[in-house]
Amino acid sequence: MRIFGREPVAVLNTLSAILGLIVSLGVTPLTPAMAGGIVAFVTAVLGAAAAAMTRPVAPQAFTTVVAAGAVLVGTFGFEVSQPVVGAINGAVLAVLTLLTRVQVSPVPPTAPASQPATPTAL
Question: Cβ distance 18 to 64 under 8 Å?
Answer without folding.
Answer: no
